[in-house]
Specification:
45 strands, Sialidase_sf, 673 residues, Class_I_gatase-like, disordered N terminus, Neuraminidase, ThuA-like, six-stranded antiparallel sheet, Rossmann fold
Length: 673
């Protein structure tokens, strides 16, 4: 049954128009949060992003981000009818008639599923009154899917006995009827869903809550009233009653967490379908869980989480661990991570939050405290390794729970930033960032580029960003790329495999204050003396300028590399907390400045100072302004017969800024002509 509530408390607030770089993170809401067992929580419709939220006071909201003018608007749908709890966040669906539908429920506080639609199209300023459907038990979550072939809309939710159930609508969410129970099982399964929009709805599930179950991950799908395993074998009919013969272990096992052993406890995170309709998914694994059911001694575990990825290739599941996720969000929910989310149209791209280095697992520290940051991950194809680049870096607040949207022209990531003490106690802002889709040209032939870098806490995460960029460059342009990451003490540093750079057409430097063996330094000098090009990024202007005097025998620094090759002197830095505004110094449109925006754009990194030391013969391309200081940030010159390009840009988040990526691409093309 259903009935109407005739009035609601709501307010709306327009955001201020801001003159800002459209490719830097945008503050979308001062107050919002979401859980991850509701879909969709965000939609990209033409030039607008819509997303749901729950404020710190418990108000359910729907927000709009207009990408055409960078303005935001938030509408509050509930006020005081639900308690503060991010589990109450609504799901969104674009109805076939062009209206938006949102469905939400309390966190198992009553038996009511709440819903409403916009009165006209995408206008979130005006909504129908809230309606409710009373179910057969306490409810939580909402997951909305419209099937074009049948004209049915499904809402999957957690209901009676904490088992998954569904409602059914035949009028695009105007009214609902009870559909049935998906599982009947003693555990509290956690499901994520995805649909082809036609006939089939996929799901992945755990056995239960990771606090109470050791948890495997399973996959199945629903079609024409039946439930199937991954390979299409029939499990049984989908229940149309309040009981069910189905349970999680009836379906295809993806990840075996060993239900009898309290290690490797899995939890579902996200599910999408690829261009062939095959599912791909991500989940987290807790490597150090506390005792099953423990609620008191929660400090004894939850400090080592990993992110896993799996894909169905048509005959089997291929599953792998892909990154360190770091520590729990807070004690008591020891399996809560910052979360991982998939690109909805590209199985080789994803985003996640972690307070640990994705590759090494070492803590990500800001002012001595662990801090969650957002990372973008990409790989060349499904047979290659993942590479990572920070979307946020050295943040003063935690960044968690990314959501990814995309169309043919751009990719958008939303996330939460602020304090998260529990699912009922938080103070979070919502941010968004736009990344234009890269265009692949594959025109560069077989030119070989070698990147030299170091794993150093003061080297701006170059050990992540450079492998990430090298992979993207090879993917987009067809260059052969290799990355050499050095190892050892700075006064006796070693670049493994450097002896193989003889056939490299370009050397790219992004390392700081190291001394190499005389033999390795000779190899670099040989490349430069041969007139081959060099590209320096950020800390390259003190690449071999070792501060220590105690260099062991057989090793050497090379302070003259900066003035003689790069063509300037390192004169320190601007204020560490000040961003850099980037302006063109030459006419835009061609060559090295092709595709660079006319409007000023920003780097979140501080300015490197050079004074008047830049080679008078250098061609300055871009200048930077920060805290009243100015300096060149990109230029070209000649070192002997060889071309040289240097940029002091290269802060970690620059590697997800299209202007910086275009600048590097232009510089590499120029250097190799």
């Amino acid at each position: 049954m259903f009935f109407y509530i005739s009035s609601t408390f709501c307010f709306s607030q327009d955001s201020l128009r801001e003159n800002e770089d459209p490719f830097q993170p945008k503050l979308l809401s001062e107050d919002g949060s979401w859980c991850w067992f509701q879909d969709k929580r965000a939609l990209l419709v033409e030039d607008k992003v819509f997303f749901t939220g729950v404020t710190a006071e418990g108000y359910n909201t729907v927000s709009e981000w207009d990408l055409s003018n960078n303005e935001t608007f938030t509408k509050t749908l509930t006020r005081g009818t639900l308690p503060p709890d991010d589990h109450n966040v609504g799901a969104l669906m674009l109805r076939p008639d062009g209206k938006l539908l949102t469905v939400y429920a309390g966190h198992s506080i009553d038996s009511l599923v709440r819903y409403r639609s916009t009165k006209s199209g995408l206008d979130i300023r005006k909504w129908q009154d809230e309606s409710v459907f009373e179910t057969n038990g306490r409810v939580c979550y909402a997951n909305l899917f419209y099937l074009e072939a049948t004209g049915e809309t499904f809402n999957f939710f957690r209901g009676n006995e904490n088992n998954p159930h569904y409602l059914l609508s035949r009028d695009e969410g105007e009214s609902w009827e009870f559909g049935g129970r998906l599982f009947q099982f003693e555990g509290r399964s956690y499901l994520k869903y995805a649909s082809d929009g036609q006939r089939r709805i996929h799901f992945i599930t755990t056995d239960g809550h990771p606090r109470h179950f050791n948890n495997n991950i399973y996959h199945g799908y629903l079609e024409n009233g039946n439930a199937y395993r991954s390979d299409g074998s029939l499990v049984g009919p989908l229940s149309t009653a309040d009981t069910s013969d189905l349970k999680p272990s009836d379906f295809t096992l993806i990840y075996d967490g060993d239900l009898n052993t309290r290690t490797d406890v899995a939890w579902t995170s996200d599910l999408q379908l690829d261009e062939s309709g095959f599912p791909y998914l991500v989940f987290s694994v807790t490597k150090d869980p506390i005792t099953r059911g423990e609620t008191i001694h929660t400090s004894l575990g939850g400090f080592d989480h990993r992110y896993h990825y799996a894909r169905w290739d048509g005959s089997e599941w291929i599953e792998e661990e892909i990154a360190f996720a770091g520590s729990r969000l807070y004690p008591g929910e020891n399996e809560y991570t910052g979360l991982i989310s998939l690109h909805p149209g590209n199985k080789n791209v994803l985003y996640f939050s972690a307070d640990a280095h994705p590759v090494t697992g070492s803590p990500m520290l800001v002012d001595g405290e662990r801090r969650y940051e957002i990372f973008r991950a990409e790989r060349l194809d499904e047979h290659q390794s993942w590479h990572f680049s920070p979307v946020t870096y050295q943040s003063k607040a935690d960044n968690i729970r990314p959501i990814v949207l995309a169309d043919q022209n751009r990719e958008i990531v939303l996330w939460l930033s602020g304090r998260y003490s529990s699912y009922r106690d938080y103070q979070l802002k919502v941010y968004g960032k736009v990344l234009p889709q890269a265009k692949n040209t594959l025109e560069a032939g077989k030119k070989k580029i070698t990147f030299l870098t170091s794993r150093d806490p003061d080297n701006y995460a170059a050990d992540m960003t450079i492998p990430y960029y090298a992979m993207k460059l090879g993917k987009a342009k067809g260059y052969q790329t290799q990355v050499i990451t050095g190892e050892g003490e700075r006064n006796a540093f070693h670049l493994p495999g450097l002896e193989n750079i003889g056939n490299s057409d370009l050397l790219v430097f992004f390392l700081r204050r190291v001394a190499l063996s005389s033999a390795q330094m000779a190899l670099i000098k040989k490349h430069i003396d041969a007139g081959k090009p060099v590209l320096g990024i950020r800390t390259a202007n003190h690449a071999f300028s070792l501060r220590e005097d105690n260099i062991p025998a057989g090793f050497e620094d090379w302070r003259e590399f900066v003035p003689e090759v790069l063509g300037h002197e390192n004169q320190g830095y601007g204020p560490a907390t000040a961003i850099t505004e980037v302006l063109p110094a030459k006419k835009l449109g061609k060559g090295l400045l092709k595709g660079i925006p006319e409007e000023p754009w920003t780097s979140q990194g501080n300015l490197y100072l050079m004074g008047e030391s830049v080679d008078s013969g250098a061609r300055i391309l871009l200048t930077g302004s920060s805290a009243g200081l100015k300096a060149p940030v990109a230029y070209t010159r000649k070192s002997g017969k060889g071309k040289v390009f240097y940029t002091s840009l290269g802060y970690p988040t620059d590697f997800t800024h299209p202007a910086f990526l275009q600048l590097l691409e232009n510089a590499i093309d120029w250097a190799l002509k």
